What we know:
Blueprint: H1 3-7, H2 13-16, E1 49-51, E2 54-56, H3 62-68, E3 76-78, E4 89-95, E5 99-106, E6 109-120, H4 122-135, E7 142-145, E8 149-156, E9 159-168, E10 172-181, H5 182-187, H6 192-205
Amino acid sequence: MTRRVLNLIPLAVLAFGCAAPSGEKSASTPTPPPAVPGVTPPESPELFLLHRGLSYKLGTTWEDAEAVFERPRSAFDFSELPAAFQPPYRGRGWEGSRESFGVILYQQRSVLAMQQFDRADRAQLDELVKAYETALPNLTPQYVTGKQVNAWFWQVGDEQLMVAGTDVPQSGLHIAVVLGMRPLMQRVGATPAQLESDIANLNRRFEIPTRDPKPESREPNVP
């Protein structure tokens, strides 16, 4: 869709930056993954994105998306796709100074949509999570957390919604709200299993403990 989608892979990388540890050489450019097969949205989608009192579901056109996520005057348009998403997939979106929105379309219908915020704060993240919990009262989100990453996932069938906040060094909190068909969410690294794996790999790489060690038990001194 745009470089913002690529920055989402993996989310946990944003917490530590893209640089390798001191003394470690950066990896070479990876081989692009195989093209994504065609994925169509459900006939009656149940999950949605929220924006200014409106909701947006998969399976609609770019014009429908623009009606909910109106492009700011200062934003610029983009149409790039990630390497794995080739025609007949299409990308459409806009990017502003602190907010961006874009969709991936298949046969003119949206199959993945993403809203992102730069230089956000925890209050904004908490407000977003609360809004989705209120709007989806019958669904319990799966929560995934790391040292600097917090993400909530809702799922109905093959639809998946993610709200994630990542503390980015020297840039503040980055928030990504992604709605998509599960096979495509897997391709952009936005599933609970992938995020948990990313966090575990980074913890090992940077020697970050996943939890505080339990204190040693001591027998009381007996006079």
